[in-house]
């Protein structure tokens, strides 16, 4: 099996860690070796949260600069900030709904134009796919299911050795029972958006 290296970047509270857990469970259910590492940073204060996942044979869960096969961005500026982890073949899937940092919200900084962010990412990577995951999560019935919408898009992109069915099973097994139905809808909407 070909090794695939995935970086997931988000802002604290967007569900990055749950998305990693679901993907790890899906890989385990499919007997796919997976290694994971997480950086929580100042997540509780809206800071960056990053997960690194390697599917296939690997000695470590560290993904160095230029090594990511896939970058999944829960927030467009965070995807841009992680661009150094990508190369000219990297597939990038990112949410287009911005979550401006505190400095931009109080007028002490400027959030870049979304068109500029997309151009910068597209110029340095192999393929860029964008979607408004926030709108799809709302359509699914839970604005907090952005992470699951993005998992749907990731799986539909066909860049990981994980099947849609194994992710659906992992969602049912790892998310709170009250949210399983909504999360499955969110997954399907993300899957259909790519």
From TrEMBL:
Write the lineage as a comma-separated list: Bacteria, Candidatus Shapironibacteriota
**Keywords carried by this UniProt record:** Oxidoreductase, Pyruvate
GO terms assigned for molecular function: oxidoreductase activity, acting on the aldehyde or oxo group of donors
Task: Give the matching Pfam families.
Answer: POR (PF01558)
The name this protein carries in UniProt is Pyruvate ferredoxin oxidoreductase
Domain Pyruvate/ketoisovalerate oxidoreductase catalytic, first and last residues per copy: 12-191
Q: Which domain of life is it from?
A: Bacteria
Q: Which organism is it from?
A: Candidatus Shapirobacteria bacterium CG06_land_8_20_14_3_00_40_12
| SUPFAM superfamilies per UniProt | Pyruvate-ferredoxin oxidoreductase, PFOR, domain III
Q: Which InterPro entries match?
A: IorB_Oxidoreductase, Pyrv/ketoisovalerate_OxRed_cat, Pyrv_flavodox_OxRed_cen
């Amino acid at each position: 099996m070909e090794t695939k290296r995935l970086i997931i970047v988000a802002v604290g509270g967007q569900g990055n860690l749950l998305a990693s857990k679901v993907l790890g469970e899906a890989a385990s259910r499919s007997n796919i070796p997976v290694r994971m590492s997480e950086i929580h940073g100042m997540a509780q204060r809206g800071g960056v949260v990053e997960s690194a996942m390697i599917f296939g044979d690997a000695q470590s869960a560290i993904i160095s600069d230029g090594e990511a096969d896939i970058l999944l961005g829960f927030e467009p500026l965070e995807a841009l900030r992680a661009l150094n982890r990508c190369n000219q073949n990297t597939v990038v899937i990112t949410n287009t709904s911005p979550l401006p940092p505190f400095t931009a919200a109080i007028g002490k900084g400027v959030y870049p134009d979304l068109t500029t962010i997309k151009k910068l990412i597209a110029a340095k990577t192999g393929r860029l796919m964008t979607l408004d995951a926030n709108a799809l999560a709302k359509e699914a019935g839970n604005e907090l299911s952005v992470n699951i919408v993005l998992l749907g898009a990731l799986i539909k992109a066909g860049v990981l050795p994980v099947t849609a069915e194994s992710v659906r099973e992992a969602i049912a097994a790892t998310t709170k029972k009250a949210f399983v139905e909504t999360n499955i809808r969110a997954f399907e909407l993300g899957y259909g958006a790519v």
